[in-house]
Amino acid sequence: MKKALHHTAIALLLLSTPACAHAAEVNLNGVVGNRALVVIDGGKPRWIAVGENSPEGVKLMSVSGDSAVFEIAGRRETLTMGQGARVSAGSASTGARTVILTADARGHFFSAGAINGGSVRFLIDTEPHADHTTGHFVFSPPAVIIAAAGAGEAMKREGHEARNRKRMLDNPTMVDEFKGYRMITPHIEYQQKMNLSLGQRSFELIYLKGVHSEADTAVWLPRERVLFATAAVGVKRFPNIRPFLTIPDILASIKLMRALNPEIVIAGHGEPGTTTIFDDMEGYCALLLERVGQMVREGKSLEQIKVGLRMPEYDDWKAKDRLPSNVDAAYRAVTAAK
Ligand SMILES: [Zn+2]
Questions:
Q1: What is the CA(288)–ligand 1 centre distance, in A?
Q2: Which terminus, N or C, of the chain has the lesser number of Cβ atoms within 10 Å?
Q3: pLDDT at 135
Q4: Residues of the chain with CATH 2.30.30.830
């Protein structure tokens, strides 16, 4: 029942010690693909790509795993995530205090916040489907669960509790895993947008209308310019377009997310990347709408279109069994436009 989570741990760090005025101080906060998230001289976190030179004269030479090689003031320094180098007379570790946000074994990101002086853990649901929300009872209490409006209602309507209890009975090996299970609906449901500030890090939760479920949330880290686009897009993967979702809504959400100008885009499934993930999904939708529209104009029925439509350009995409649902959605879109 567990769908694999494909989140890559992005470790982020915030610098709390001021930089020495004349030293080139570099801290490595994250590595994704061929880019490194760095803080130079205590400034704003910034992404630089391999081969790129920062205005302060810090050049990223290479990245591998959670480390990166820099050329700082003419010397090579290898930094691992959360580590800093100060280059002046000599090079020494800064001992900066760090807050690191990494995914746990279940693929969840946790961060502690405070309300009225008491420590609080937050859990953000990016969607209410059972593979995302059944585990609430493991984290809450004490975690405060946050989702977009409608998430709790969808969980109840889909009957998660009864379904999970049946699974327990059908599969005795799951009994231990389900120990203490009860359905917990989100404690906080926001409309449209919610800002969550945890110390120096802030998260913007953005409601995405009609992209995957009844209550989808994208998570935007404005300082780091990292966007969790969640199930709105996948990497080389056909979307699951349920009957109540529309292609125009999916395209509108992509437009909204693109306008944030993210440096890194993390899709619901697949490797972290850039806005080319959006380009691919838009290109796919445009071609699908064009081909289905053409067949409608030729007088073909929905059934005939499903049999006859070919999308060879996307042969390497995963989840091909979803293509018929995509054709349904395209058909709805092109016939509604008439
Ligand atoms: Zn889902």
A1: 22
A2: C
A3: 87
A4: 24-92
Cα 125 to ligand 1 centre (Å): 11
- Nearest C-alpha neighbor of 217 from the set 209, 208, 226: 208
pLDDT digits (tens, 9 = 90+) for 108-142: 555 555 544 555 578 899 999 998 999 888 888 87
Q: How many helices (H) and strands (E) does the chain have?
A: 8, 17
d(CA 205, CA 325): 28
- Calculate how far, in angstroms, residue 276's C-alpha sits from the geometric centre of ligand 1: 22
Cα(100) to ligand 1 centroid in Å equals: 27
Report the Cα 140 to chain-centroid distance in Å. Answer: 22
pLDDT range class, residue 89, cuts 50, 70, 90 = very low
Give me the pLDDT at residue 25, please: 78
Measured in Å, residue 233 CA sits from the centre of ligand 1 at 11
Backbone angles phi, psi at 224, to 5 degrees: -85, -15
Residue 268 alpha carbon to ligand 1 centre in Å: 9
Q: How far is the CA of 189 from the centre of ligand 1 (A)?
A: 18
Kindly give, in sequence order, each residue whose CB lies less than 8 Å from that of residue 194, ignoring residues fewer than 6 positions away.
146, 188, 204, 205
pTM above 0.85, yes or no: no
Number of residues written out for the chain: 338
* Residue-wise pLDDT tens digits, 22-51: 346 788 877 777 888 888 877 777 788 999
Q: What is the CATH number of domain 24-92?
A: 2.30.30.830
First CA to last CA distance, the chain: 41
Q: What is d(CA 211, CA 142) in angstroms, rounded to the nearest whole number?
A: 30
Nearest Cα to Cα of residue 219 among 29, 46, 10, 48: 10
Give the distance (Å) from ligand 1 centre to CA of residue 322: 13
237 CA to middle of ligand 1, Å?
14
Backbone angles phi, psi at 21, to 5 degrees: -50, -40
| 38 Cα: distance to centroid of ligand 1 (angstroms) | 33
